[in-house]
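Follow-up to my earlier ticket, as requested here are the two runs.
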Amino acid sequence: MTASWPDPNPRTSQSFAEDSPVGDRWQNRLKKLLYPILLPIRTRFAGLRGAVDCLRPPIFSDFRGSEFDYVVSRLGKSRIETGTILIQGVGRQREFRFWAPYSPKRLVGVDLMPEPNSKHTSDVETACVAADLAELPFAGDTFDGVASINTWEHVQRPEATLAEARRVARSGGWLLATFGPLYGTFGGDHFSDLRGGLEHGYNHLLLDSNTYAEFVDHMTIQGIDVVDGSPKDGRLYIDLDLFSHLGWRDYHRMFSAALHLDLFTTHLGAESVKFRDQFPKKWSALLEKGYAEEDLLVSTVVVLGRFKSTPARPAVARSTLS
């Protein structure tokens, strides 16, 4: 029997990098005092109801990179300015505008399917390359830092991608990333919650493959999810399975093996908590499927660290930046 789905909601996803404030704001000063205490607590007790209930003030509840500006300030402008930065998953090149105020020497964006962005204007030199992040067309020791916003949840070969980032980074090079929602949490497919609202935010985990495909087809909106016959955004991610499917513990093991971590923190999704409280039967169904509560609630990961040194490897012929 065909399921009865609601009419799709024509909402679109808003990238954190689209209009994120940059600079030493008063919020950064407050975060600098509070986050070193509260972020480890959030990571340790993610998923416990008591921790969720006591960590829901507005300053901590936004799951999409709510402290990214703080992390950048913690990295320090001196480590950014005059350096060459690799931007992973640059997409529409919004991140160029975000990093430009910190005066890097050059920004080089890489994306599997980069899109032009005529709105980007800056004195910083930029370049955009179409390539797989797991097979970068650059020589080793090219970049001072590697950065990304909302990219790692879409990386299909995360271990290879991290190895490539370490290869092209100079000695002492850094990595900074904030990403989510992870696939195993609310809206992890970047589609179900946008089209179906709160009740359908975990459909990618709850539904069997055939029913989920039916749901996606029903909720697809021409002109938003499909433009000129080509899938866009969430629909494209689903069609190509552009998800890493890793949980936050998997990311922690991977990044701690490659980086001297200055910061690794997880964020609890506010919508995940609402779903749990408003749809207890569906929440129980998720738990019965074997999903751990903290994995269902942990929506975003933020990483800051310096690459560990690696043994010398045979040189591989690669192009250099022109």
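Run two:
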Amino acid sequence: MKKLPKEPPSSEITPESTYKRRREFIRNAGIAMGVAAVGGAGAYYWHAAAAEDGKPPPPPPPGAGKFDTGEEKTSFEDITHYNNFYEFGTDKTDPAANAGTLKPKPWTVVVKGEVEKELRLDFDDILKMATPEQRVYRMRCVEAWSMVIPWDGLPLADVIKKLKPTAKAKYVAFKTLLDPAQMPGQKGTALEWPYVEGLRMDEAMNPLTLLATGIYGKPLPNQNGAPLRLVTPWKYGFKGIKSIVEINFTETQPPTSWNIAAPNEYGFYANVNPEVDHPRWSQKTERRVGGKRIKTLKFNGYGEQVAAMYKDLDLTVHF
């Protein structure tokens, strides 16, 4: 079994003073245009494609995103400089330092398996499959750290409906790009490559599940999974597969990278559950990047939206 990373010490967490600089950073980066309320509960975000080619995004629609948590958002700087993306290195700072080799344009996604018609889609074709949603999610990771990230993207359910899976499709599997020249971490053995993940079909169709294309109104940075990644905010962060190049509809449960690496530690479901400790650390609390250690909420606080999917499962067994 491969040696797995330890829970990050508090010394690795970005200091609160850095977190407090978010407005200055955003202003200097030119992101603040039209987003005067970016730090508050009434913040709103729009589709990443609107900010491409250096053009300022249009004014956002009124009101907060449907799933805005009302929490203080993590700064753009922290979100883009404290990452897990082993394809670019295993330290939290490695992805930001090394991901410049990734070429997110042009980008193709293969659709295969239990689907009416197998397809090869350009990234722009995917963007046209749904009306952009403005959402803000809480995203937490198994290492006991968390962020509040203003994601831009498309509901996965809307995309799946356009792809027309067959009645045999019970799961949706995803695969990350395999290209060691672009992703130098794949030359190592931290995990089996390419990275793979999957969801049960009802999880994939849940309104919370997102194909993310951006953060803070800008396209996804390379280190955050450009150009397309999965977000399931009631699950631990390793379920958020990045740089997706394949969507495969399957009749049986697909393999997932961390379950392959350590099946006794990382289950298929990966639901946030403070009642079940990780074998090597407690999951009762988490450290908010740039902030304090806080109590972890079951299903990451989204129980009302997702708990019914697991009413017949023993979550201490199906972790």
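The only thing I checked on run two: The two ends are 20 Å apart (CA to CA). Let me know what else you need.
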